[in-house]
Task: structure prediction
Amino acid sequence: MKKIRVSVAALLVGVSMVLMSSCVGSFGLFNKVLRWNKTATNSKWINELIFICLHVVPVYEISYFVDGILFNTLEFWTGQSPMAGVDTTVKGEKGEYHVKSTDNGYHIELLGSNASADFLFDEASKMWTLNENGKSTKLVQFVDDNAKFYFGASEMTVNMESTLNLLAAR
Result:
């Protein structure tokens, strides 16, 4: 009887080791937030202020929790990180769109047509553009402590430091 208990216990420990093996995972979502925060502006002081605000809001805490509980578990069982890239179909007013992440942005295509667009980020100029039908349109550019938004022929510059100070004062 004692040998059976030891054998069953050994079997349970062996099965537990296989089924409950640790999965630290890549923490893709948390690391994307962190990478963005490190390069949000050219000022380390503003980036630190953003870092603190993202803890107060609590963006870092939520991304870490979602990664630890959901995404890393999915990565463990499927072998792929859900944060590795986007490849999905989205239903819109004019039909279904296929959205796929690229190395520097996103490619969006209206299914059943030749209509498509690319949202691209240029790391050197820190600018998001929309490329559609061979035409490139500026959307937003991050310069020092400012974000410059483009609206056709007009543009609006937002000082990130002033905006963050206003938010912190509330």
